[in-house]
Automatic annotation (TrEMBL):
<dbReference type="InterPro" id="IPR042099">
    <property type="entry name" value="ANL_N_sf"/>
</dbReference>
<comment type="similarity">
    <text>Belongs to the ATP-dependent AMP-binding enzyme family.</text>
</comment>
<dbReference type="InterPro" id="IPR025110">
    <property type="entry name" value="AMP-bd_C"/>
</dbReference>
<dbReference type="InterPro" id="IPR020845">
    <property type="entry name" value="AMP-binding_CS"/>
</dbReference>
<dbReference type="InterPro" id="IPR000873">
    <property type="entry name" value="AMP-dep_synth/lig_dom"/>
</dbReference>
<keyword id="KW-0436">Ligase</keyword>
<dbReference type="Pfam" id="PF13193">
    <property type="entry name" value="AMP-binding_C"/>
</dbReference>
<feature type="domain" description="AMP-dependent synthetase/ligase">
    <location>
        <begin position="23"/>
        <end position="385"/>
    </location>
</feature>
<dbReference type="GO" id="GO:0016874">
    <property type="term" value="F:ligase activity"/>
</dbReference>
<dbReference type="Pfam" id="PF00501">
    <property type="entry name" value="AMP-binding"/>
</dbReference>
<dbReference type="InterPro" id="IPR045851">
    <property type="entry name" value="AMP-bd_C_sf"/>
</dbReference>
<protein>
    <submittedName>
        <fullName>4-coumarate--CoA ligase family protein</fullName>
    </submittedName>
</protein>
<feature type="domain" description="AMP-binding enzyme C-terminal">
    <location>
        <begin position="436"/>
        <end position="512"/>
    </location>
</feature>
Amino acid sequence: MFRSEYADVPPVELPIHEAVLGRAAEFGDAPALIDGTDGTTLSYEQVDRFHRRIAAALAEAGVRKGDVLALHSPNTIAFPTAFYAATRAGASVTTVHPLATAEEFGKQLKDCSARWIVTVSPLLDTARRAADIASGVQEIFVCDSAPGHRSLIDMLGSTAPEPEAAIDPAEDVAALPYSSGTTGTPKGVMLTHRQIATNLAQLNAAISAGPGDRILAVLPFFHIYGLTALMNAPLRHGATVVVLPRFELETFLAAIQNHRITGLYVAPPIVLALAKHPLVTQYDLSSLKYIISAAAPLDARLAVACAERLGLPPVGQAYGMTELSPGTHVVPLDSMREAPPGTVGKLIAGTDMRIVSLDDPGKDLGPGESGEILIRGPQVMKGYLGRPDETAAMIDEDGWLHTGDVGHVDEDGWLFVVDRVKELIKYKGFQVAPAELEALLLTHPGIADAAVIGAYDDDGNEVPHAHVVRQPSAPGLSEGEVMMYVAERVAPYKRIRRVTFIDAVPRAASGKILRRELRERT
């Protein structure tokens, strides 16, 4: 068993809104949230006061402890206020992808028995249709304004008493994001107030932001990575969060320059853009102190290329998953120059890990040996909503969560994630990691992006199949060139056997490759 080298942290026995905004009075007029597109700013005093008034209005509307409220919105400065208002009123918040179809949204609403929706007017039609599908929704609120719907802005004038929901941080669910886990079916992940708040405390020893720091929130708040790294963590310590609704490179670069951003939490596609896109040189990014990448594997060479271009320490990585609230590993800010290339970091405080054999799951492996990563700690989810069997398959009776990820630890405790158990390609009995081939493909000057999946040849063998996005400068890049480039650099069993050229690699908002979509195309 591998243990964190950091001292344990006591469980944080507070509702998440208290754990995050408990020091709001201390930070007072300091900017908490800034709209990165129009500059609208909310101070800590305003965020605290606004979320309390909206909580009062929600309670007056009928929101009660035990209810589920669906928060369906892109990143805005209203999102955190809505989230904390809902939890203060006693609700659990299920976050919804703003690009979800009405059918996908309706399925989520039905699965978690949501009674309330908070959305924005451009998404109102989808929310209405989803509510019709689910049939249990009592009311749809909007963050901005729309005829026939109560607005969070109007709720700020509520004179109703502030709700005093009796929240048990250890048992009551604060957030209910949906995750596919190690299988393809989205499931509601029950994260209690204590689990989320304690994970913030666990991360603090290795990585934190405080007054004077400016964090750019471009990854979505609805995803647990954004919810923790870009919303809860910086607001807990008095940093300023500059909010963007989506990633558009020019807007993103302008926000870094104009708002003097100090820290970036991103996914690998953004690192790729920072490393390779010619637009980057047209902006002043000198305020940046560090970049952390998570949510998907980041190639070590790409991390170095990005850092060298921007004059920063190597891009650090972090590791976790929705079911882990989400963090378990991070490259500490004070160790970014010493961390070995490609590592996702060291265990954060209060976290234990095992690496077990893929062939013999009961066998623990030592440093340098690759196997499935198992995690135990206070951040392990309460379980999957309404799915006790799938919860039991994910978390064993000793409390170890089986991540489905393959990795190994070096002698100094740095974790390296090789790939997903389910994504490993078995070519004639040899295991091939798609992430390794993807990282290699990205070093080709004519390739802008790439994804690799397993496909079956005429003999029934599973073979590596690359889906490649050409650089605009290399429109004539051929299948043979791609295959030869890889063949010259890997063992024979790892060679790419098929190449398909595509316009874009399908990715989740978190940056993860949607391999299932690629499989469905082939």
